[in-house]
Amino acid sequence: MIKNLATNEHSELEGEAYLELFDQTIKLYIDQDSDIEYAELCITYLNNLSEELIVSLCEASIRYCNEFLDDIGEEMIKFSKPTDVLAHITPNTICIPNPKNKTEAVIDLELNCTWEVEHGMEWIIRNGEVMYVGPYHGINPYGDCDRGEDWNYVEVNNV
């Protein structure tokens, strides 16, 4: 699951992890105060997301996509089903935080997307709930994740 681990110049473990949702291996960073066992828990969780959680991530990603396109005067994209947005998304990096609870997986995923090549996208999942979907800001996955802010597309009323 996790391979090619090495310590980088920031004393973080750096390696690669395979993501089933995207059928792709991406870069993995493990906080210096975290460990491989917790990282494996997080990757296992990510690779076993429920259909409901995947649809929630996709619906929020579509809201982000179409609001961004509308804001820049581009035509919005119509998707037949929520998961069709995944064709426009490529995962880049997963950051494994220093866990507050070693039995609770927290996902902080940086992604590239076709509609916003400069800032990309970030997904944060905590406690089995989508906490943040929006432009990549390097948000603290244990904070409030900018809930209720215009740039967090988790909530439907933000559009």
Structural write-up:
The structure is a single chain. The protein is α+β, with helices and mostly antiparallel strands and 159 residues long. It contains 2 helices and 7 strands, in the order E-E-E-H-H-E-E-E-E. It has helices spanning 36-46, 51-71; strands spanning 2-7, 13-19, 24-30, 89-96, 106-113, 121-126, 129-134. A 7-stranded mixed beta sheet has the order 1-2-3-4-5-6-7, covered by helices on one side. The relative contact order is 0.15.
Summarize the structure.
This protein is an alpha+beta fold. It is built from two helices and seven strands. It has a seven-stranded mixed β-sheet with strand order 1-2-3-4-5-6-7, with helices on one face.
Q: Give me the count of strands.
A: 7
**Strand order across the biggest sheet?**
1-2-3-4-5-6-7
**Secondary structure: helix percent:** 10-25%
Radius of gyration: 15 Å
Q: Biggest sheet: strands, sense, closure?
A: 7 strands, mixed
Give me the number of helical elements.
Answer: 2
Q: List the uncertain runs.
A: none
Oligomer: single chain
Query: What is the chain-wise order of helices and strands?
Result: EEEHHEEEE
> What is the strand content?
25-35%
Summarize model confidence as the mean pLDDT: 93
| General shape | globular
**SS class:** alpha+beta
Give the N-to-C terminal Cα separation: 37 Å
